[in-house]
Amino acid sequence: MNTYAFSSIRSLKEALNKKALSRKELLTLCYKRFNQYDKILGSALELFDEQSVERSSTGGLLDSIPGIVKDNICQNGRQLTCASKMLQGYKSPYDATVIQRLHAAGALIVGRANMDEFAMGSSTQTSAYKKTCNPWDHSRVPGGSSGGSAAAVAAGLVSWALGSDTGGSVRQPAGFCGIVGMKPTYGLVSRFGLVALSSSLDQIGPLTRTVYDNALVLSAIAGYDSQDSTTHMRASVDYTAPLTGSLPKGFTLGVIDNALEAPGFDPEVYEALHESLRQFEQLGARIKRIKIPVMDYGVSVYFIINRAEAASNLARFDGVRFGYRSEQSQTLNDMYQNSRNQGFGLEVKSRILIGNYVLSVGHADEFYKCAKIVQGHMRQELLKAFHEVDLLFMPTSAAAAFKFGAFDKNSIQMDLQDYFTSPANITGVPTVAVPCGFTSTHLPISFQLMGPDFSEAALYQVAYAYEQATPWHTMHPPLYQE
């Protein structure tokens, strides 16, 4: 049975269809591996009762395939904590749209994945409940904020997971854990039922071990939703259809030179990125080097917009309607102050304070308004680049996964983890992270492909061609192989 632990969704579906594997056997294997490994890995905040999971509907794109969902996505009757003390014990009264669509596709959702508190972080160290380790090296972080989702997939506990991506929170952990992560076009996937961090940047995206599997999960969850006014009226798409193993005819890949010239690159990462470009050339791609200077402002723009919108969105957690309420309060003001002080962790409180500052009278024009203006310029410059090239190539991170506590005394360096990933959120365009090698210490390396709005099919086609020509998707953490 353990031979199926690292199988792709496509392989599992074939085994199920041929009766070589039953739905019950696959689910049992999933729970067995969680029970065996997750005490150390720490990817799940909760595993659901197996019988309640088995009651899920059958049929559909993901029929009988187990997966896990980040704990900021509502599941009816299940706990929803966002890895925060503030929501400890809270149960969601409804399903997010993506959960409804996963159920309709026959998927088995086995639990809630650990994350950075309220999706604020790049390491999953800010969770109020537990630490999630990187499956390739337990002394290192899995990335964040969707670290639990990425770790569970990379370790072969499940074959798919959902995360949310506000500044790179699907792609950076996918890169650190050696799997595929997609940040879709803003408005392609409904945010209804996603606990908001930064409403203009948030998107739900899938994490899987292969490009095909990622395309399959996105096919199941994407589409218009009347409950989310930011979703687009677009016909359903089978994102697996263009996965032929070949690049589009006359394909041109743009390389953002100023991204590759950024300081702080690990030499092994730098070399792996250039080797990936050589592989694309062998596949028939034309490489065109371009500069987009305004992209260098991305992390600064993200810092301001993210904090401002987070402060606004988290104002609702006040100890009155739901969430943690301090019992050590004599007055209403004491209750507000104590509940938020005790319920939120340090990172969340820091972002709220900064957000309130950049939105305050006398500072909003200086910070938030200016950031929104630069955001508009970034989008225009990026869309202009797509007149010259089909897709853009850039790093996912400048280095492989870092050790726990590496940046505890350097918050700026931690914020810079979003340097290469945040531009896609700021501009709203889709981006996929793809594994492209390993360091000499066996840590995964990753690149990103970025496209214009609603170019997910092209991104998957190009990523799949690269994946099929390289061995990286076949390699799994030795600690989790039997």
β-sheet strand percentage: 5-15%
Provide a count of the helices.
Answer: 16
The CATH architecture classification is Alpha-Beta Complex
* Mean residue pLDDT: 96
Low-confidence stretches: none
Helicity, as a percent range: 25-40%
Main β-sheet: number of strands, strand sense, barrel status? Answer: 11 strands, mixed
Q: What's the alpha carbon Rg, rounded to whole Å? A: 21 Å
CATH topology: Amidase signature (AS) enzymes
CATH superfamily: Amidase signature (AS) domain
The CATH class assignment is Alpha Beta
Properties at a glance:
Amidase signature (AS) enzymes, alpha/beta, 16 helices, 482 residues, eleven-stranded mixed beta sheet
Write up this protein.
Strands 1-3-2-4-6-5-10-11-9-7-8 form an eleven-stranded mixed beta sheet, sandwiched between helices. The mean pLDDT is 96. The protein has a single domain (2-254, 385-480), classed as Alpha-Beta Complex (Amidase signature (AS) enzymes), CATH 3.90.1300. Strand 10 and strand 11 form a beta hairpin. The protein has helices spanning 9-17, 23-41, 50-54, 97-104, 147-154, 171-177, 211-221, 257-260, 267-282, 298-313, 332-343, 346-359, 365-385, 411-415, 422-427, 456-468; strands at 44-47, 66-70, 108-113, 160-165, 180-183, 203-208, 252-256, 286-290, 391-395, 431-438, 444-450. Helix 7 runs antiparallel to helix 16. It is α/β, with parallel strands linked by helices.
